[in-house]
Amino acid sequence: MKLVTLFLDFEWNPLVFLKVIKNASVVKIVPLIDENLISLSMELISEKGWLGKHEMDVLINTLKKQLEKQEEKFLSEMERILKERNVVYVIERREGNLKKVLIDLFSEKPDKVVIFIRRRNPLLKVVKPILRGIMKNHQKIEIVKV
Fold first, then answer.
1. DSSP state, residue 87
2. 44 FRET partner, CA 20 to 30 A, in 6, 25, 84, 125?
3. Angle at CA 84, nearest 5°, toward 78 and 88?
4. 2-145 maps to which CATH number?
5. Residues 43-67 pLDDT 10s
6. Are 34 and 6 in contact (CB under 8 A)?
7. Distance CA 64, CA 68 (A)
8. pTM of the model
9. Domain ranges within the chain, ordered by starting residue
């Protein structure tokens, strides 16, 4: 089974991940940083008007840099665990629009796409409607909230 795993944040549970990929012959790991989703989730957080435009821009840039650092640590740990278990994998780092990335991944005809996101991530509120729309056309999506 050809499995694609898409990570929208980089806090993960290795045991949950290993359970999800158990029957896969090849695992494609796609960490994604979507600046638009970060901006939208920050707008949701700041709806009360406590932050001005400048502060929002600074916060978004800081968050993006923090995500990039977390991504490095995440990928290092991920590779170590997969190598220890002799799992065949490919890592494809992506930035950009979630919807476009998913459409691109589906063009590769995977058996399944599993999206990992933290349960308490403000991004989840922004991502849910996007994923619902995509899931109408692609039944092979599973969302794992860790």
1. -
2. 6
3. 70
4. 3.40.50.620
5. 777 776 667 778 888 888 898 899 9
6. no
7. 6
8. 0.87
9. 2-145
